[in-house]
Specification:
The protein is built from 22 helices and 16 strands. By secondary structure, the chain is an alpha/beta fold. Among the domains are: about 285-370, Glutamyl-tRNA Synthetase, domain 2 (Orthogonal Bundle), CATH 1.10.1160; about 375-435, no CATH class; about 450-545, Arc Repressor Mutant, subunit A. Helix 20 links the parallel strand 15 and strand 16 (about 505). Helix 1 (about 5-10) packs antiparallel against helix 5 (about 120-135), helix 3 (about 50-65) packs across helix 11 and helix 14 (about 375-390) crosses helix 16. The chain is elongated, with a radius of gyration of 33 Å. The protein binds one RNA strand through helix 6, strand 8, strand 9, helix 8 and strand 13.
Length: about 550
RNA sequence: GGUCUGUUGGUGAAGUGGUUUAACACACCGCCCUCUCAAGGCGGCAUACACGGGUUCAAAUCCCGUACAGACUACCA
């Protein structure tokens, strides 16, 4: 039996590797164009880290006029969730991450498919066969227990852990041994026959981290599992070569397995792509940093932000600031431009762990929402509450124009209000504007608490209030009434001689504000009165004392 | 244990051997604006380059060691 027949005996494929080498042509790209890919597992959720990496994949490809494609890594059949793929595509889409090629809702796009790894089984096997023919891979019959056993001894002796050298029992099996075992029905996997020597260092340059030196891989790592599917490492080498990925952008947790990947690319005779290892998203957990975790951190699932009512755009902007910290400054001086106009670079990306910062997201979200028109805020609030707050939703529907008016207070001007951070916040911000929700626990009176005085202020004020007044006129009238009741009409006057007055114009207006809304802190009072109108104001005044 | 990576004020983070007396942002404090809040303007704050050696005329920046932190160490990805 020659090696070709031997390989055919061990692995059955419908095509041979030359067929695939021929089928997937080299991409023709413009100078500098990057081909990137996002390669998630279909576990049914999009991890914040995937969004981060997807953002970078997308932005690097599109700003270099390259290609960004989606590949699904479902070789771990245990973790695959039904409909997981569509969930991923949908979620990413919401964040503006779309793909030029690869898996899509309505099938697949592109010449390099299939883009789902479980459908590429024949391809991986064909290349595993190539390695067997070239004596760069071999079947292994060892059990999990064998390996556990090795590990125990290795740990005890403080030797390198893994399947290599004298521990690699099956490496020494002759062809005849193997044939006998296979005919016997013994299960086996395929391992790489590593030729590396850990005393030799590989010099390597990562796009983000820069120069590195790592020992050569000497582990005979599994490449085909007993279920016939490839391991991540092998699939990565085969797919990213065949699909023509120029830049492999992935989390830094992959850095330690880079030696294995280089070994695989070289064994397969493939060119090694460029790598960019992005920093892990970390969280501060009682003073220590740790990787964000799906189990401990609810926000690890990007869906969390949707539930919180954080606009997708805000999360995207947050991703942009994480990617390149100089983005924020650029955005501030280019307010009308999109993040797509900013040139992101690898060498501005963070090397260490990146801290996840919810306050920062809130801040970005506030700023983003403040730039929206009132109608847009209304539209989004409607969409959000429809799903998460039925009561609020119905009020928004019932009082459409009134609600838009509320959102329009101090908006659409050069320095707009920034008080809405998320759409689950709007009820807290505006409840007192709706009679249905207006059930104050207490009135936050300030300096003036005497009920006779409060009554007097309202009765005098309502005599002069005219809803047609402009803001200047409105304020003048308020000052006039305040003065006639013994309040200082200007803050300056009050500060100079506080003893001469019952209070300042601020104290006076606080009475009006609290009487109408029960709250001492609200947006512009003029606008609120205008939205209320006389009738509603009077109803509110009656309500104060009963 | 081994391998790899990182460590700059309270926090995040610029910085790629010499205009660095180390940006900027957030936080905090003060003042201004002001009918409250938000926003905005001005100013202040901080004993910041983990530690110890070395290379150099010159080091946050290059090299070596130590400490600390993190990632990885599966027939998971």
């Amino acid at each position: 039996m020659d090696r070709k027949e031997y390989a055919d005996f061990l692995i059955k494929t419908t095509h041979d590797y030359n067929y695939y080498l021929d089928k997937y042509k080299k991409r023709e790209l413009k100078e500098g164009a990057m081909v990137t890919r996002l390669a998630p597992s279909p576990t049914g959720m999009v991890h914040l880290g995937s969004l981060y990496s997807g953002f970078i994949d997308k932005v690097m490809a599109s700003q270099s006029n390259g290609i960004c494609y989606l590949r699904i890594e479902d070789t771990d059949t245990k973790r695959t969730v039904e409909n997981g793929v569509n969930t991923i595509i949908d979620s990413l889409n919401k964040f503006g991450i779309t793909f030029d090629e690869g898996v899509a809702i309505d099938g697949e796009k592109g010449e390099y498919g299939p883009y789902v790894q479980s459908k590429r089984e024949d391809i991986y096997k064909a290349f595993a066969k190539k390695l067997i023919i070239e004596d760069k891979a071999y079947p292994c019959f060892c059990t999990k227990e064998d390996e556990e056993h090795n590990k125990e001894i290795q740990t005890k002796n403080k030797e390198q852990i893994g399947y290599y050298g004298r521990w690699a029992k099956c490496r020494k099996l002759t062809m005849e041994d193997v044939i006998e075992k296979v005919n016997n029905g013994d299960k086996y996997i395929i391992r790489l026959k590593s030729r590396g020597n850990p005393n030799h260092k590989i010099k390597f340059k990562d796009c983000i981290i820069g120069k590195m030196e790592i020992p050569q891989n000497n582990l005979d790592i599994p490449i085909i599992k007993s279920d016939g599917l490839p391991t991540y490492h092998f699939a990565h080498a085969v797919d990213d070569s065949l699909m023509g990925t120029t830049h492999v952008i992935r989390g830094e947790e992959w850095l330690p397995s880079l030696d294995k990947h280089i070994d695989l690319f070289e064994s397969l005779g493939f060119r090694i792509p460029k790598y960019a290892h992005i920093s892990t998203l970390m969280v501060d957990d009682n003073g220590t940093r740790r990787k964000i975790s799906k189990r401990k951190d609810p926000w690890a699932d990007v869906n969390y932000f949707h539930k919180q009512g954080i606009p997708n755009e805000a999360l995207v902007l947050y991703m942009a600031t994480l990617t390149n910290s100089n983005f924020e400054a650029w955005q501030n001086s280019n307010k009308d431009k999109s993040y797509k106009d900013f040139e992101f670079t690898f060498n501005k990306m963070s090397k260490g762990g990146t801290m996840y910062d919810y306050d920062k997201i809130i801040n970005i979200s506030k700023n983003f929402i403040s730039t929206l028109k009132a109608e847009e805020v209304y539209k989004r609030a409607l969409k959000y509450t429809r799903e998460y707050d039925r009561e609020m939703y119905e009020l928004l529907v019932k009082y459409k124009d009134y609600s838009i008016g509320i959102f329009n207070i101090e908006r659409e001007k050069r320095k707009p209000r920034k008080d809405i951070a998320s759409f689950n916040d709007i009820k807290n911000q505006t409840w007192y504007m709706y009679d249905e929700l207006f059930k104050p626990q207490k009135y936050e009176w300030g300096k003036i608490t005497n009920s006779d005085m409060i009554k007097k202020i309202f009765s005098e004020y309502m005599d002069v209030y005219d809803s047609n007044d402009d803001q200047d006129e409105w304020f003048k009238k308020m000052k006039k009434v305040a003065e006639s009741l013994g309040f200082a009409p200007e803050m300056k006057l009050y500060r100079e001689n506080p003893d001469n007055y019952k209070g300042s114009i601020a104290d006076f207006s606080t009475v009006l504000r609290v009487g109408l809304t029960s709250k001492s802190m609200t947006p512009d009072l003029y606008e609120i009165m205008k939205l209320f109108g006389r009738e509603k104001m009077e109803k509110r005044i009656v309500k104060i004392f009963n």
